[in-house]
Amino acid sequence: MLGTLYGIGVGPGDPDLLTLKAVKVLGRVGHVFAASSSSNDYSLALDIVRRHLPKGIPVHSLDFPMTFDKNRLESAWRANCDTVAARLESGVDVAFVTLGDPMTFSTFIYLWRTIRQRLSEVPVEIVPGITSYQAAAACAGVVLAEAEETLTVISGAKGGRRLSQVLPFSDSVVLMKAYKHFPEILDQIRRSGLQDSVCFVSRCGLEGQVVEKDFAALENLKPHYLSLLIVKKGGGST
After folding, report:
1. What is the pTM of this model?
2. Superfamily of domain 5-127
3. Which residues touch 144 (CB under 8 Å, ≥6 apart)?
4. What is the tens place of the pLDDT at every residue in 170-197?
5. Is 132-232 a domain of CATH 3.30.950.10?
6. Do domains 5-127 and 132-232 have the same CATH topology?
7. Does residue 39 have a pLDDT over 60?
8. How confident is the model at residue 63 (pLDDT cuts 50, 70, 90)?
């Protein structure tokens, strides 16, 4: 029999935001996997769940390179699939832990698809997690949406062009992965005249957390990887 693959969202960083279901699953699986950068084997997701792992459970970091090179990415996905599939084929239940939610800008999505191509009958259970933008809105006191308002969540990994496309149709925009093209994104906000509608949150729930609503203070900021922007037309703070 094949083992079950669990995709577990561990939230944005604060271990107290891990769900009860996630803790229960982690207590009974036989192997835990997590994504790490190709430059090192550190995994924040593993740090978040470590206190909840049974003593002696095997833990394995999988290399997911941060690149847009399709060939390099597909090679990494296949290699990671081989590693995880070997455990599933031996009948072991495994968990892949990922920051935030498994179905929102997550490395789990790629692993899940690749595993399913190889082991179409493998049982999969996905445990949702609190997203970074939910936690960021809570700590910053910014209302994401109310009444008939619209909320749009986009990636800033390739710059601010997508922001200009969605702003006319959105009351609130969450721009995740905002660190890499930060100056370009700020310029797009400036050209849209929304400097007074921005909230920047970095390392939410972690040491070094930053919440900044002064647009001028963002001009010379070099944001951490774990950073996002909330653009809320008309304010939205309590």
Report:
1. 0.89
2. Tetrapyrrole methylase, N-terminal domain (3.40.1010.10)
3. 133, 134, 137, 151, 172, 174, 230, 232, 236
4. 999 999 988 888 999 999 999 999 999 9
5. yes
6. no
7. no
8. confident
Mean pLDDT of the chain: 90
* pLDDT for residue 147 is more than 90: yes
